[in-house]
Write a structure and sequence with these properties.
- This protein has 419 residues and is α/β, with parallel strands linked by helices.
- The N and C termini lie close together (4 Å).
- It binds uridine-diphosphate-N-acetylglucosamine.
- The site of uridine-diphosphate-N-acetylglucosamine (UD1) has 22 residues, from helix 1, helix 5 and helix 6.
């Protein structure tokens, strides 16, 4: 198994661009099922989760090609199999995103039930109940969801809780439903807006994405589209914290800072000096000035749970005490044990992590447990004294493109060790 070796202590400095957003790209790839016309994506990130979605689409009969500009062209015109197998779904819960599109366009889907996962139970009941309300018949058989419908019929659906992929799945299903669908209590994440923009570029009629209520007027079919995946706000936030914990200064280019106010506001409170332009963010952290900042995760526009582990490291190096509260997932403090092995002083009680800042961390062999937990261990390694070896980095490759190259470019001493 590959590992990352980090020698901490280097101050990060420089200018980088972020890759396309994984969480924007995954639902868009699933949405290609909605049309028999080819779709071209620019700026698709090279990540394990994207490869998994390719494998799912490919196993159904999708044709995926890479052109000379490194754009991916996907055609689902000849889809012949409407199943997402357990071997693929178990590696990526977002596989459930193909459910809505398959039922909407082909009237049937067989998707392995995603199991438990490291950061919580993460059920898909909101997805299934909403699809039933659109007229689908749902059965759970042998660990698989089987959904069928001759034609989905638009209706008014109020989600019992806020779910990002739930909102996306049902938005995709409703695009080809007969009549109007109104979705209430939906996720307002920028990636939901991105998906609506992409679907509208193919001829869908969606309004309200980014607010609490989305209206979709069903259409008979969708056309082709060429779409650029926007930059990843979580990747950007992770690099900003990498600079902050090393008292460095970086500029992130081609990023929409308006999507990151929830993260930038907390970084400013932590003592970081931040400037933004229309498409860039710069951060510098003056020496020895990290203040502790309480964090409470929430659906957008709240502080993202996907930045919780990384911000925990920043707080761990602060000159005070902070409480980090995780409200979205029930088991998302798996990084804490490993961080404490590197000298952090963090106590978890229920959904709260109580953090006392320390002066320095020490390198150690540590184990990644999930995607963002891995990121937090790398951040800790960057500022720790001596050598940190992060094991099980397949987690990081699910969501960060060429992380060691980007961090090396910024001045970090980091290398991938073969397995
Ligand atoms: C998405 C993101 C993930 C992020 C999360 C929260 C993608 C591919 N992944 O995951 O990176 O951490 O949003 O911002 O975009 N829930 C239910 N029933 C359901 C669905 C969800 O109870 O049917 C609960 C979950 O257990 C969780 C909460 O709702 O406690 C939010 O989960 P959700 O927004 O669905 O997360 P994902 O869409 O899986």
């Amino acid at each position: 198994m590959e590992k990352l070796k980090i020698i901490g202590g280097n101050r990060l400095s420089g200018i980088i661009s972020c890759s396309g957003a994984k969480n924007a790209a995954l639902p868009m790839l699933a949405a290609t099922i909605l049309t028999d016309k080819p779709v071209t994506f620019k700026n698709l990130p090279y990540l394990q989760d994207i490869t998994t979605m390719f494998e799912i689409l490919g196993s159904m009969g999708a044709d995926i090609t890479l052109n000379e500009n490194m754009d991916f062209r996907i055609s689902t015109a000849n889809l012949h199999d409407f199943e997402a197998r357990y071997e693929l779904v178990k590696t990526m819960r977002a596989s459930i995103l193909v459910l809505g599109s398959l039922v909407a366009r082909h009237g049937f889907a067989r998707i392995a039930l995603p199991g438990g996962c490291a950061i919580g139970t993460r059920p898909v009941d909101f997805h299934l109940s909403a699809l039933e309300q659109l007229g689908a018949k749902i059965e759970l058989k042998n660990g698989y969801i089987e959904a069928s419908a001759k034609k989905l019929i638009g209706c008014e659906i109020s989600f019992p809780g806020i779910s990002v992929t739930g909102t996306e799945n049902i938005m995709m299903a409703a695009v080809l439903a007969k009549g109007q669908t109104i979705l209430r209590n939906v996720a307002k994440e920028p990636e939901v807006e991105d998906l609506a923009k992409f679907l509208n570029s193919m001829g869908a009629q969606i309004s309200g994405a980014g607010t609490d209520e989305i209206t979709i007027n069903g259409v008979d079919d969708l056309t082709e589209s060429i779409f650029t995946i926007p930059a990843d706000r979580i990747e950007a936030g992770t690099y900003l914290i990498a600079a902050a914990v090393t008292y460095g200064d970086i500029v992130i280019q081609d990023i929409n800072a308006n999507r990151m106010n929830n993260i930038l506001d907390k970084l400013k409170l932590s003592g970081a000096l931040i400037e933004t332009t229309e498409n860039s963010i710069s951060l510098s952290m003056p020496h020895n000035s990290i203040h502790s900042v309480d964090i409470s995760t929430a659906p957008f526009p709240g502080f993202p749970t996907d930045m919780q582990a990384q911000f925990t490291v920043l707080n761990a190096l602060s000159n005070g005490s902070a409480v980090v509260t995780e409200n979205v997932f029930e088991n998302r403090f798996m990084h804490v044990q490993e961080l404490n092995r590197m000298g952090c002083d963090i106590t978890v009680k229920g959904s709260n992590a109580f953090i006392k800042g320390v002066n320095h961390l020490t390198g150690a062999p540590v184990m990644a447990t999930d995607l963002r937990a891995s990121a937090s261990l790398i951040l800790a390694g960057l500022c720790a004294d001596g050598e940190t070896i992060v094991d099980r980095i397949y987690h990081i490759d699910r969501g960060y493109e060429r992380i060691e190259e980007k961090l090396s470019y910024l001045g970090a001493d980091i290398a991938r060790l073969p397995g």
